[in-house]
Amino acid sequence: MTGNAGSSTQENHFRQRLRVMAEKIVIFCRYYVPLIVLLPYRTLQFFYQIKTQVPIEPKHSSSFITDSEIQSEFAHHAPGVAMMNNGSFGCCPASVISALHQWQLKMFRQPSHFLLNELKNRILESRTIIKDHINAEDVDEVSIVDNISTAAAIVLQQTAWAFAEGKFNKGDAVIMFSCTYGAVKNSIEAYFSRAGGSVIEVPFNFPLNSNEEIISEFRKALEREKGNGRRVRLAVIDHVTCVPTVVMPVKQLVKICRDEGVEQVFIDAAHAVGSVDVDMQEIGADFYASTLYKWFFCPPVVSFLYCRKSATHSDLELHHPIVSHRYGKGLAEESFWVGTRDYSPYLVLPSVMEFVNRFEGGLKGIIKRNHDAVVEMGKMLAEAWGTNLGCPPDMCASMIMVGLPACLGISSDDDATKLRPHLCDKFGVEVRIHYQAPKDGEVGSTTGYVRICHQIYNKVDDYYKLRDAVNQLVRDGFTCALEVCICSAFIQFIGL
């Protein structure tokens, strides 16, 4: 009996082991054999896709960002304010602000490791994104800087050294338009004029009817100076002017510079990236600087300076105006480290690209959307006020100038400066106001213009609010002169 019991026990153990083994075989066949069989096919398919560069399927329309999601991204904007002045300081969506905060926390978590070991590669990633977007030849042509003032200082200080070292002669010139941005004009004064250079200022006869008016004035100025024997070392040209705002024919202007022997061309493109197409190979400038916080959804402050290889390899040295440990290692190296500071705005470019690609057509779709909308709203306002646009629609980007009713009495830059806060404080409307002096002999011309911007967060109601605010001022008999009188009387009353 004992022997039979032992034999039975062994048999049961053997059967149990067979059952477990069988279960394992079943599981193996069910889950792993298909993978092994399909692996060669999947591998070949993967390499075939790489070889043939099979494009990624485009998003279906249902996956694009919705209007409600756009408003959610900008829910941090002040409620009740019609913000139509994006061109001044830009905007930043919530998802990018979140990424900004994450980079800041990462730096604070371990500053030494982040700043010494990780920062350089992260900035290189952002520079590569910029390089690809603007179609630069090499990433070393792209330096990240704070703003256009920094970029202008980099370009213009090398001209001051050229005067000091005898490479330039006293009286050599820089040419610019009269509408050149004030801070850039100041840089020209600080670096170029003080070093002994002269300034050629080309008239900008706004309002405009065509690009040919701009091109003709520029060509005449260069031919005149060339005829007088003056050597023009540098041209400073806007891509999209600030106020009055116009998209400049930069490709044609750069070509004229080459034809007339201008040595270097610097494009101030503060408003360009995110509002117009930008291609360094087509434009052909030596230097090109654009902000990324005005129209490209980055937080302040991040911009870039492109320096064409032929310009960086010339005998004119380019250096960041803040001298730090990387001095002499190339402009891109000098710019990426200017001492201990918060570099996180430089690092959000990947997150910005993710945001932009949520829109149908990506950045090109956003550019078209904003252009079409600002033209439509500009025409609506001009019709409502019985005025005119400052230029044809094809000469504007995401901003346009609209004439204001003459009865408002805008007769000076001071009037324009004071009307802006009045519109904001009384009506909750943010816009830029421009005074345009009448041309010689003109009577009854429009002297006041409003610059309206359109960014993706704007609604039609914003522009209706502006329309109604101006109409209310007209009905109330408001004039800038009357406002000045009221302010003066109030100051006298309170004894200031």
UniProtKB/TrEMBL annotation:
Q: Which InterPro entries match?
A: Aminotrans_V_dom (IPR000192), PyrdxlP-dep_Trfase (IPR015424), PyrdxlP-dep_Trfase_major (IPR015421)
Keyword Cell membrane in the entry? The reply is no
Identify the residues that the record assigns to the Aminotransferase class V domain, covering every copy. Answer: 94-313
Q: What protein name does the entry list?
A: Aminotransferase class V domain-containing protein
Q: Which organism is it from?
A: Prunus persica
Record keywords, A-Z: Pyridoxal phosphate
Asked whether the keyword Nucleotide-binding is assigned, the reply is no
Question: One Pfam family from the UniProt entry?
Answer: Aminotran_5
One function term, GO molecular function aspect: carbon-sulfur lyase activity
Task: Give the source's domain of life in one word.
Answer: Eukaryota
